[in-house]
Amino acid sequence: MLNKIKLWKKENNSSELRDRIEQIKKLPVPDHVAIIMDGNGRWAKKRALPRIAGHHEGMKVVRKTTKLANELGIKVLTLYAFSTENWKRPKSEVDYLMKLPEEFLGTFLPELMKENVQVRMMGYREELPIHTRRAIEKAIEDTKENDGLILNFALNYGSRAEIIDAVKHILNDCKSGILNEKSLDEHSFSSYLMTSQLADPDLLIRTSGEIRLSNFMLWQLAYTEFWFTDILWPDFKGEHLLEAIEIFQNRQRRFGGI
Ligand code: FPP
Question: Ligand 1 centre from 110 Cα, in Å?
Fold first, then answer.
């Protein structure tokens, strides 16, 4: 009897979710959603588990969020999985975080293929352990023809380093005559960033109650709508993504105009 009630509740909730998804799809959804997935450590601590248990649970949420984002017609989902500053964490935690892309892609690549998801990565690849890099590069190669959602992992990514590198590259191109200094504008500057192939995020989500950007896409987020939630990333559910998008759909974006 208890199981029947549980099943009824589950089915009922998911039909509620389905209705919400259909309503959301009637209005424009953000093309590019970026997420700072925060709170894995606190989620684990609350359960007296090691921090890596939080990261593992967080990985499962990546899968579900990707699936829903694809279903909603979001074009790009950028996930902040590891920052250039995260190397400061204990080696055991860093080692574990570097194993997660392999585990995720090893398990879910067939599903991502089936769902037509294209995997990409932005960040400094050369500093990643070879096993991490291989897993990511294989996924990028295998999914390159897919034209559904772009799942863009920010891995060993830092926005200030990205901007400095862009400036160095621009100076070089000016020196060698590839670029005329006078033609440098916001559009051409953007083409030197790791996101050159992508539109700027329309919506930024950060979980866990922290209200900061932590060196994430500082240039690209200039006109992005922000949504912060106290939910810890491992607890982030479809309903939270839907809530963020509903709020986004009710905002007025003016891009500096009136
Ligand atoms: C921040 O939480 C989270 C990270 C630094 C890692 C995020 C990684 C995942 C969610 C898994 C990624 C999965 C793939 C497939 C690459 P925190 O550890 O800083 O949490 P805390 O602030 O509560 O300590």
Answer: 24
